[in-house]
Design goal:
The protein has 187 residues and is mainly α. 67% of the residues lie in helices and 2% in strands. A hairpin with a 3-residue loop joins β1 and β2.
């Protein structure tokens, strides 16, 4: 009886994967289990959802702020609408490219959601703009955390001073250094 995992199938040894076999999905024209088609279909579907959300929120903003409440649509509202449009265009493009490539787009999606939510809230009240403070707040949090990790991370020497196992190893090494290193040989 063969050990599990040592052979494959009917006792034949498992063939080691060659580097070319592991990169089959990168070859031109190769579909590798049709994953590229599935990925493209998923990208197309999600891109449509994101585009519908942008169109819906922008349509509501224009209808409510521009057509129904023109008196509240001043210069700052126009600049804000330009900012919303730019951020939506940037994040939508980045998410679309990331989906097509099959890479992580979480940060773009977070900014996209904050942007659309802020635009939705700013449609009805100017206090909705305060939600945008989440973006610099998160950036400040990340920077302070990075600085804190750098400042408060102990060096290797400090770790060794406080580690009982390291102290024990150092003491053993010191005892061995004190012993004479003599080799006895038989004649």
């Amino acid at each position: 009886r063969h050990r599990r995992g040592a052979t494959e199938g009917r006792g034949r040894p498992r063939r080691a994967a060659r580097p070319a076999d592991r990169l089959h999905h990168l070859r031109e024209g190769s579909m590798g289990g049709h994953s590229e088609k599935k990925q493209a279909k998923k990208a197309e579907a999600w891109t449509a959802y994101y585009l519908y959300a942008i169109c819906g929120v922008n349509a509501l903003f224009v209808l409510w702020r521009v057509l129904f409440h023109w008196s509240s649509f001043g210069r700052w509202s126009m600049i804000g609408f330009g900012l919303f449009s730019f951020v939506s265009y940037f994040t939508f493009g980045a998410m679309k490219n990331s989906l097509e490539l099959g890479v992580d787009y979480e940060m773009y999606q977070d900014l996209y959601i904050v942007n659309l939510t802020t635009q939705l809230l700013a449609t009805f009240t100017d206090y909705g703009w305060y939600l945008y403070l989440v973006v610099p707040g998160y950036a400040l949090y990340k920077v302070l955390r990075m600085v804190g990790d750098y400042v408060f991370t102990p060096t290797a020497d400090e770790v060794d001073e406080n580690d009982p196992a390291a102290k024990k190893r150092a003491e053993k090494k010191a005892r061995q250094a004190e012993k004479p290193k003599i080799k006895y040989s038989k004649r």
